[in-house]
């Protein structure tokens, strides 16, 4: 017993101070008027639910919640999940070399650090960037992507960065589908589409659910990509909750209010994580 | 073309189109980095040059930011491995009452978004007078990477047969020596996987050092590249592209390395027979 405490102590100290501590502080600070500068920086007061009342009154908060939902839906659920599955299923039983090349290209986007991803896409989508050059060569007008379609732009960049993860998860689970079952269905006269919807999809259902929660959690925390591509703008066009939290805490110096917003993020994260653990059905 | 043939060709066609779409933004960075007159649009450089790279690498401020990045990421990876192996040992070897809730808590922590706690972490750092400290930033990063590290290392350790360790004890080794000489060496593939993953996550992390470090001379590469982006981004595309490629290289190299490890790594079962 004593020995195991000795082994566990370093990790417990680190996790308590830098992981559990900040989570508890999130709950505490959310109920204070903590500010970065001014008198409230020195004497912080307990203000009850004031931050939350202000938050639900704040149109900026409502906008951010909507933006977060759109960002999650387009880039995580539709984008990464569907594109990742499509890639995995199309690559199944294809020419080995071809599979490898496509795999490497997609994974390259995943290995690239977020800030470089942002830089690549800002350049690619810029007014005289590659995409507009291609459009022009097809005889189409240039589009100011980052101003006219900012949300689409950050979603595409996030899909480019994240799809490889879903692709690899689905590749692994598709490999687990026994070939004999598929072959038997085809002999019984099932079409390719029927094999997909009646046999493959039900068999990989578990990994679809787990992957969806995991990708949603990752996307919920995306800050760097949006912050460096659009800074949340133009206006509030791409101001998701993490950006809104950052602006309130560090631009407007309202740490208490910023923490209340992070508490909302944290609570969504906690529920999604609990779902994730349930879906994993782990044995410990 | 008959229906059967079409069915074979269509997937290849779709995959090629997706592949091209994925490749274009990367191609631009590669071409721009070797072109002195790089523009926003993809152009084949008229003259191949490494001047952009030498310009980035000859600036001592850039070198320092890479070194600081290495310090944060290597330090974090090393600490996660050491502290993680220590924590994994009792969790893997002893049966205890608190083991199950602890492992569930760990798994729960692996999926929480770190973004959500950054505001209170900043406040905590001010309170403890740790702001602008690279070591404290590294410790925070270590804590954020520990849940994943402990979880993976415990699973890798479960695969190391207990008999090997017991025979070491019979030969007079202490528990501590057993971990160091028998268990850890057999877990090398697992340790490398966790180390590489932790390093890559940390190396690419911009938000944490951006919030916790204030002095520009303490910025790691991820934050420096952002400053560069803001200051010269609209003018010096070639240099920024070169910076991006140098900065991306460690993550790419380690990923290739990790793949080799992961494919040959899990043959631990044979160890007990040998």
Automatic annotation (TrEMBL), chain A:
Main location: membrane
Protein name: Sugar ABC transporter permease
Positions of transmembrane segments: 12-31, 69-90, 102-125, 145-170, 208-229, 255-277
Keywords of this entry: Cell membrane, Membrane, Transmembrane, Transmembrane helix, Transport
Domain ABC transmembrane type-1: 66-276
Pfam family, one: BPD_transp_1
Family the entry assigns: Belongs to the binding-protein-dependent transport system permease family.
InterPro entries, sorted: MetI-like, MetI-like_sf
Gene3D superfamilies: MetI-like (1.10.3720.10)
Originating species: Halobacillus salinarum
Compartment list: Cell membrane
Membrane topology value: Multi-pass membrane protein
TrEMBL record, chain B:
Keywords attached to this entry: Cell membrane, Membrane, Transmembrane, Transmembrane helix, Transport
Location, primary (coarse class): membrane
Domain ABC transmembrane type-1: 66-258
InterPro entries reported for this sequence: BP-dep_ABC_trans_perm, MetI-like, MetI-like_sf
Location relative to the cell: Cell membrane
Membrane topology: Multi-pass membrane protein
Transmembrane segments: 12-31, 66-89, 101-128, 134-153, 186-213, 240-258
Protein name in UniProt: Carbohydrate ABC transporter permease
Similarity field: Belongs to the binding-protein-dependent transport system permease family.
